[in-house]
TrEMBL record:
PANTHER family: CHEMOTAXIS PROTEIN METHYLTRANSFERASE (PTHR24422). Its EC number is 2.1.1.80. One of its GO terms (biological process) is methylation. It comes from Desulfomicrobium baculatum (strain DSM 4028 / VKM B-1378 / X). Residues 12-281 form the CheR-type methyltransferase domain. PROSITE patterns: CHER. It comes from the Bacteria. InterPro entries: Bact_Chemotaxis_MeTrfase, Chemotaxis_MeTrfase_CheR, CheR_C, CheR_MeTrfase, CheR_N, CheR_N_sf, SAM-dependent_MTases_sf. The lineage of its organism: Bacteria, Pseudomonadati, Thermodesulfobacteriota, Desulfovibrionia, Desulfovibrionales. This is protein-glutamate O-methyltransferase.
Length: 281
């Protein structure tokens, strides 16, 4: 077998697939089945080339080392998941936030700070969409203090998110008035790039977090986004993860999940309010 550069590429044995599957499940909670073997092999071959390694066994040994867990595990996440994200993805959530949640929350908590967590934030489009929605409410409807924490396991993707620089083609889903208020155009117009304004960037704090680890938040959240992340987990891991979210949600706080995801059949202290929208009991 040859890779994209015409070089001989190692084939993954069923034994190696089983070893990787067990490692990925223990570290990331993600199930890799036999049907994913070709995909996993192709993506890991790129990592082997990058690291100048000759076998999957050598790569797995590196992954299991202290350095590998810190440096390479995020690359493994990128290899087994797909970072599909966009501004104002699943827009009904942001309409519900501005039209329903915020007015009700402010009545119950006058003068307090609205705390949001964007879990699995990828390259930042979701937390900046959240920030735009909250800032617009603050400017247009009622003064609102808010904080946003955004987490991801990949340090590289977090650096990209913190830079807050995006290609022109990414911003088509942002309402025109928000583009005018919250985006800066590159001085070099030929680059066709935009950047989130500093006032909005400053409202978002980025942190690295693996969902399999303990959550080290001191404060409880009023709203948690965890959208299109749980599709990679089995039911047991999904339940454990959502229970951890519940532990970090204020009573009466809200959880948004992806519209293709479901919490049906779970025994959790949550009440469904709308599609993919839940309240902590």
């Amino acid at each position: 077998m040859y890779d994209a550069n015409g070089q001989t590429a190692p084939l993954m044995t069923d034994k190696e697939l089983k070893q990787f599957s067990e490692f990925i499940y223990s570290e990331l909670g993600i199930k890799i089945t036999q049907t994913k073997k070709t995909m996993l092999q192709a993506r890991l071959q790129r990592r082997l080339r990058t690291l100048n390694m000759r076998s999957y066994g050598q790569y797995l040994e590196y992954l299991q080392s202290l350095k590998g867990l810190e440096v390479e595990l995020p690359q493994m996440v990128d290899a087994v998941t797909t970072n599909t994200t966009s501004f104002f993805r699943e827009p009904k959530h942001f309409e519900y936030l501005s039209q329903i949640i915020l007015p009700q929350w402010q009545k119950k908590h006058p003068g307090q700070t609205f705390a949001v967590w964007n879990a699995g934030c990828s390259s930042g489009e979701e937390p900046y969409t959240t920030a735009m929605t909250l800032m617009d409410y603050h400017q247009r409807v009622s003064p609102l203090r808010f904080t946003i924490v955004a987490t991801d396991i990949s340090t590289d993707i977090l650096k990209k998110a913190a830079r807050a620089v995006y290609e022109d083609e990414k911003i088509g889903t942002i309402p025109v008035e928000f583009r005018r208020k919250y985006l800066l155009r590159s001085k070099d117009r030929s680059r066709r790039m935009v950047r989130i304004i500093p006032e909005l960037r400053d409202t978002v704090s980025f942190r690295r977090l693996n969902f399999m680890d303990d959550f080290q938040f001191r404060e409880k959240m009023d709203l948690i986004f965890c959208r299109n992340v749980m599709i990679y987990f089995d039911k047991k891991t999904q339940n454990e993860l959502v229970q951890k979210f519940c532990n970090h949600l204020e009573p009466g706080g809200y959880l948004f999940i992806g519209h293709s995801e479901s919490l049906a059949g779970t025994d959790l202290p949550l009440k469904q309010l709308a599609p993919a929208t839940y309240m902590r009991l």
